[in-house]
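Encode chain A's predicted structure.
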Amino acid sequence: MIETSNLNLIEAREEDIKDIMEMENHEDNRNFIWQGTYEQHLSEIMDKDYLLLIFKRKEDNLTVGFALNYLDYKSERFELRRIAVAVKGKGYGKEALNALIKYTFEDLKFNKFWLDVYPDNVVGIKLYENAGLHCDGVLRQNYKSERGFLDQKVYSMLRSEYEGLN
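Encoded structure for chain A:
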């Protein structure tokens, strides 16, 4: 579906759910992303408004990450709901994020790419800022988890900003 120099981002199938759930629950990821159930992921796969993608490394077809995205066709918004990488330190997260941003504006012709992130997700925030995303603000104590009430920082890029980068 989406190809980069090292990855193929392809639509997830039911048999990929186990790998997705393992990545969500990995100790490096679980404090920063919501963990879905098998049934929720199956529903996302079936729903045309969701795009659940797995990242396959070209050299050996190994699944190295995934992204859950919500497509708001009416308002032309692409929401990155979750992104996780199983193989760290190889640049796969950066490569996948940049491909999703490009897909948003060049293929879908949408107006906005956006996401939210917990303020203690330092690695994620660095990735988003390096990709050129704008910090729109903080939703204070917006999500209650086992860690307590958490803030969420909102990041976005508009079509005009993307066009200005290229």
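The helical segments are 17-25, 38-46, 92-107, 122-130, 159-165.
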